[in-house]
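Let's practice the habit of predicting before peeking. Look at the sequence and jot down your guess about where helices and strands might fall. Then scroll down.
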Amino acid sequence: MKKIIIGLIFLSQFTFGQTNGRQFVGLSIGPSFPLSDFSKSKLIDSTSGFAKTGIAMSFNYAYRVSHNFGIQLIINYSSNSLNSSKYKNELESAHPNYGVSVESTKSWSSGGLFLGPYLRFPVFENFSWDIRALAGYFGSYSPNATIRTTNKNDLNDKGEYYLVSSRASNFGYILGTGFKYKVGSYYVLLFGDYIQSTLKFKDATGWDWDGEPYHTTFNQRINYFAITGGVGYIL
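Done guessing? Here is the structure:
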């Protein structure tokens, strides 16, 4: 990731040369709020992601073509842990004779590379409002989890089952808006972005409730809203 960012900065300088402040690079961080299917926590609903509020990071490079229009590239990342307590409750509801514990060792980890236009609306001197729409590559790793069970009527009846992380990628997009405040050669950035992609995980593996290994495919819509703040440097 670091090499990609350094390479983009070098390429932008080489390509555009003297741009009179038409371009900038920025780095932002903030919370990631899972939405709809991604946050849903119903075991009987296969679209449930059981994702919790996490953290989002975003690197962006922008080139302003005209006074109000520009092109932007974004590399983003989001980590959303598995809601182990809700997953546990759902398993116990489905199997009332068992006590269950769920330990997640890997979160939903998602990220992508997006390119698209943005509109810039100056509000007053040094302060502007941006609207952006980008599309591109998006990928994600599903979480790992270890599930341990104990039969309430027979404490010797114990089990240990696993969900193993798998990877998928697809087309994704970002719709966002935010503000930039110029301070010398820097921008103070505050943005809200909606990110979505529907992924097909083809190599999901684990051990089911009967202790049998499985290999399956599932679809997951990953969509979240990220609020990020950071700093941009004007090139």
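How did you do? Confidence is low (pLDDT under 50) at residues 2-6, 8-19.
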